[in-house]
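Check this.
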Amino acid sequence: MGYCAPGADGQDLVLQSGASAAFLSGTAHGYEVSSPVRDDEIVAATITGNSGDLAWILYSSVPGLGTSSPSYDGELLVSAPLGVYFAGAIPSSGMLAVSGPAPTLGPGVESSVIYSQAVVRGATTGRFRVASPSALVIVDDSF
């Protein structure tokens, strides 16, 4: 899993005449998946957020173009058909780790990509937020 350490602050936001920017309040939610994995290995995922937030993982074999909705904050970047996995409540550490077996590839299938994204419901706000997307690459265990 790749993880970037906090860096120095960037440059101030400069907007051209007539442009506007929207700043979202609250804590950013993160999502990471171990990748690539063989189809007989364990997949590990980490979701970060506020203590008590509830977290789900949405996954699909089809990437999305990016959709937004008044019912959640952020861009949904996975497409239907969606699978949904309830990951649990984020503990006081702010980091929820989950794991499970990688999907088994069918006969003759050498690899597959599963696109996923975490959705977190704020414990205090009840508002849904979409975290960053990730792609899980699964390769046949013969490689």
The chain has a mean pLDDT of 88.
